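Quick one:
INPUT:
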């Protein structure tokens, strides 16, 4: 074959066969025979039936001309991408292997991104061709577009009669061809994104006529699995892999910039024994087309990848989650070295946003500041209810980085004071603690109906706690000087004073206050009491545990100095007090009243105080008498007499010797013996 003539003829013929794209808008359905139009010479016959293309190639002694090729082409309408594959089957018949000067093939027109349309061929950068040819012997060839072009024989590929699977695969600038799954030819193009714009099914014969049978080509622009050997290939693979597909690292990869995971895509990345090392500050996986972080609907699973930060200064992330919510991240069997955290989650402020989930399982942390980080309060309006974390089986796992100490209606706050202020105008009026809190000053609750749910956590004073006079050194103050506060509830946790505090909880000029399931720890307070009810009405529900210290006055003071004061113990409530025996649990003054105390485990001392009910005297457990052994129904066995007890008091006259019973053994006196003293 004359290569130069072949190349020149190829260019001319392709130009002549170009047709407007609009005329074949439905050409993407390659099973439609109408999608296939004549290319060069119309074959003797052409049919598309049952997923097969069949056509007859007539004898043409002048087949060395490019017009000697007989066939049809179809436009795929595939857009440019970093990955595509065209696959089909071709039958090699006995006729083809026994007839000299025949060939058959499918040509793939490869167009670059931004070309002028498939029909114009102005954007064509390659013709990817695998052909069967019998020219003095049956064989397979691939077209080499380099320079003036040439055919390359494919050594080691059988050309015997049978069905052959042909695959032409493009990935990130590299085009690779396969026959029956074996790689037979590969080369690199100048473009990293191309499209298989058109397909030409054709054959020619210098001699006898023959028939060609092909499977209708399948065009895929995604792959279920890809392998990446570089940062560029990793990005391309993540883009190109099918939704739910797998990308495997084929080598250790260095990243100068994050891999951008397409929004809404599900991707699995397997380490394959390799790792990802960051060479600049940032993240391994991100999506930063707008606000940084993986977008809603995105799911990223990373298995067995070793991540290494760019510096020992702990500055990087493996994954960044965005602020839309609805992201799923799973890191399994990975290792993290010299990083800030494995996953950082940006704030979510939309109450309607779906929850993002983060799972970190079986991973190893080394010189990592936090297992994960989440903005759940550092940004105004950030929510605490839009991220769910599950960590298990990890080694060296550091603590997470969170910011919210309390939440109100799902919004996180970095200070309890700010949360209490926000709750006053919230829908639920409820503040829920998310961690133990150390206050720098007295916490004042002065909003009607506010609920402070300690959520099993503890409020205490920080080392920096400040007060200006004794009555602003309480830890928690309920009430206001200016108006009666009504309906406040404090529940489910511990209020623990330090030496900087007076009362643990001070209720002042408030009504219908509920204290439920609380521990008031006054052990180290400077003075005062665990609870003071000052001109207020308070109900105790469930448990109230009072812990007193050396400077505690009593457990509770109920004082009506500025108005009626009442303390009511609800049914089922119980009071305990430890630390200062002898001090009253409750003292009353200025007509302060207490109800329900007895049922809560208290007793009225009759002097305006209440104490704990004494524990009931235990009833001794009788020791049973041992039954006789031997024949049943016999007489009891003899019991040894108790030792005599002598009255050693000096006396004259008679001396009494009594055989006294031994307590607890059921014995009775045996009698009295009298004798004269000499």
């Amino acid at each position: 074959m004359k290569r130069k003539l072949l190349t020149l003829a190829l260019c001319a013929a392709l130009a002549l066969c170009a047709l407007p794209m609009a005329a074949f808008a439905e050409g993407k359905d390659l099973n439609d025979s109408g999608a296939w139009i004549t290319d060069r010479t119309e074959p003797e016959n052409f049919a598309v039936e049952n997923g097969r293309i069949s056509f007859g190639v007539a004898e043409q002694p002048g087949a060395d001309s490019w017009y000697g090729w007989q066939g049809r082409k179809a436009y795929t309408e595939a857009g440019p991408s970093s990955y595509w594959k065209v696959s089909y089957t071709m039958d090699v018949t006995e006729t083809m292997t026994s007839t000299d000067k025949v060939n058959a093939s499918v040509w793939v027109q490869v167009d670059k991104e931004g070309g002028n349309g498939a029909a114009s061929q102005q954007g064509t950068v390659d013709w990817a061709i695998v052909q069967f040819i019998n020219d003095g012997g049956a064989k397979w060839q691939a077209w080499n577009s380099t320079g003036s072009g040439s055919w390359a024989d494919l050594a080691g590929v059988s050309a015997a009669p049978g069905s052959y699977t042909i695959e032409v695969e493009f990935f990130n600038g590299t085009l690779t061809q396969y026959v029956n799954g074996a790689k037979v030819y590969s080369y690199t193009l100048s473009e990293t994104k191309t499209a298989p714009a058109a397909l030409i099914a054709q054959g020619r014969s210098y001699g006898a006529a023959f028939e060609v049978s092909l499977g209708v080509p399948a065009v895929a622009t995604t792959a279920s699995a890809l392998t990446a050997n570089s940062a560029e290939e990793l990005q391309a693979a993540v883009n190109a892999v099918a939704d739910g597909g797998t990308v495997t690292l084929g080598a250790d990869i260095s990243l100068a910039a994050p891999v951008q995971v397409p929004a809404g895509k599900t991707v699995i990345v397997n380490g394959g024994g390799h790792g990802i090392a960051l060479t600049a500050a940032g993240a391994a996986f991100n999506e930063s087309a707008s606000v940084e972080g993986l977008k809603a609907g995105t799911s990223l699973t990373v298995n067995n990848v070793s991540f290494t930060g760019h510096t020992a200064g702990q500055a990087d992330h493996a994954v960044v989650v965005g602020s839309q919510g609805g992201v799923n991240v799973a890191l399994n069997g990975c290792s993290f070295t010299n990083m800030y955290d494995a996953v950082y989650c940006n704030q979510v402020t939309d109450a309607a946003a779906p929850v993002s989930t983060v799972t970190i399982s079986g991973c190893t942390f080394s010189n990592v500041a936090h297992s994960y980080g989440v903005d759940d309060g550092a940004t105004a309006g950030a929510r605490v209810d839009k991220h769910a974390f599950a960590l298990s089986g990890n080694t060296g796992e550091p603590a997470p980085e969170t910011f919210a100490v309390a939440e109100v209606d799902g919004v996180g706050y970095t200070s309890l004071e700010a949360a209490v202020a926000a709750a006053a105008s919230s829908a639920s009026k409820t503040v829920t603690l998310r961690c133990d809190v150390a206050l720098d000053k007295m916490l004042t609750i002065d909003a009607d109906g506010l609920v402070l749910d300690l959520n099993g956590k503890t409020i205490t004073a920080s080392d920096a706690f400040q007060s200006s006079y004794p009555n602003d050194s309480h830890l928690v103050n309920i009430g206001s000087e200016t108006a009666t506060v009504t309906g406040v509830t404090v529940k489910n946790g511990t209020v623990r004073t330090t030496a900087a505090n007076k009362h643990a909880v001070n209720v002042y000029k408030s009504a219908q206050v509920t204290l439920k399931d609380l521990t008031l720890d006054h052990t180290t307070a400077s003075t005062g009491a665990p609870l003071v009810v000052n001109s207020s009405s308070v109900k105790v529900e469930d448990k109230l545990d009072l812990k007193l210290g050396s400077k505690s006055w009593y457990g509770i003071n109920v004082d009506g100095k500025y108005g009626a004061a009442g303390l009511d113990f609800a049914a089922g409530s119980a009071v305990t007090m430890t630390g200062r025996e002898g001090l009253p649990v409750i003292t009353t003054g200025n007509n302060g009243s207490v109800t329900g105390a007895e049922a809560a485990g208290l007793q009225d001392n009759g002097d305006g105080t209440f104490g704990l009910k004494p524990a009931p005297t235990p009833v001794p457990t009788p020791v049973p008498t041992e039954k006789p052994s031997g024949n049943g129904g016999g007489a009891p066995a003899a019991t040894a007499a108790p030792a005599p007890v002598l009255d050693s008091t000096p006396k004259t006259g008679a001396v009494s010797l009594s055989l006294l019973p031994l307590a607890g053994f059921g014995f009775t006196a045996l009698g009295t013996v009298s004798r004269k003293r000499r």
